[in-house]
Amino acid sequence: MSTVGGLAIILIVALAAVTNYWKGRYEKVVPKLESRTPFKIEERDEKSLTLSTTIEFRNEGTQSAMIVDAYVKPQLPFEQYDGIAVRGKAEREGKPREDDYFEALVLEHKESVNLVAKVTLTARKGMTLEEAVSHMVDFPIEFIYREVGRSPMHFSIARIILTAEELAVLVGVELVKD
User: Fold this and answer.
1) pLDDT in tens, 17-54
2) Are 37 and 75 in contact (CB under 8 A)?
3) Alpha-carbon torsion 31, 36, 41, 42, what sign?
4) Confidence check: pLDDT of 16 > 70
5) If 0-12 CB within 10 Å is exposed, 13-18 middle and 19+ buried, where does residue 34 land?
6) Which residues contact 35 (CB under 8 A, 6 or more apart)?
7) In whole angstroms, what is the distance from residue 53 CA to residue 161 CA?
């Protein structure tokens, strides 16, 4: 075997070893939806209600991860139900912010952080909160977060369903069959 051939084989083996080493090293942020807290009332007045649920996000990868951004997007278009306007917000548990900005955070290998999904529902069309909720429908709430580590930055979505029944119990009304 020539020297060039031997060097080529050594280079190929070394490249394969390095590639294999880095291939298994990545971040993997996993929302633990099965153990999220039930929705609870944060604030309430005659026209609006703010609910929250807390979700554990765990880095199950082998490298550090960074959650760069997060926001909550309720999926209740007026075509589905126009009696309530819905807005969402994401924040770290115990670190609320007035400016709706999500401060990036680092999650080391096997670490967790609790993030809070807040949803504010506001009655529309001259209805009280109770009237509006009594005609409510189920709707999904997407907790959208952007993560990065060794893999390229990407968005992931954790989906929660807020049922009309759960909301009616929190508000203390019975649902009307429309």
Assistant:
1) 565 555 566 889 999 999 999 999 999 998 999 999 99
2) no
3) negative
4) no
5) exposed
6) 56
7) 11
Predicted confidence (pLDDT) per residue in 100-158, tens digit: 899 999 999 999 999 999 999 999 999 999 999 999 999 999 999 999 998 889 999 99
Residues 6+ positions from 84 with CB-CB distance below 8 Å: 76, 121, 122, 123, 124, 132, 133, 136
Q: 3-state class of 116 per DSSP?
A: strand
Q: Residue type for 26, please?
A: Y
CB neighbour list of residue 29: distance below 8 Å, 6 or more residues apart: 57, 58, 59, 60, 61, 65, 67, 107, 145, 147, 156
By the 10 Å C-beta count (0-12 exposed, 13-18 middle, 19+ buried), 73 is classed as middle
User: Which of 57, 48, 47, 52 lies closest to 37, judged by CA?
Assistant: 52
Distances from the Cα of 81 to the Cαs of 53, 116, 137, 151, 177, in angstroms? 22, 25, 7, 40, 14
Q: How far apart are CA 145 and CA 2, in angstroms?
A: 53
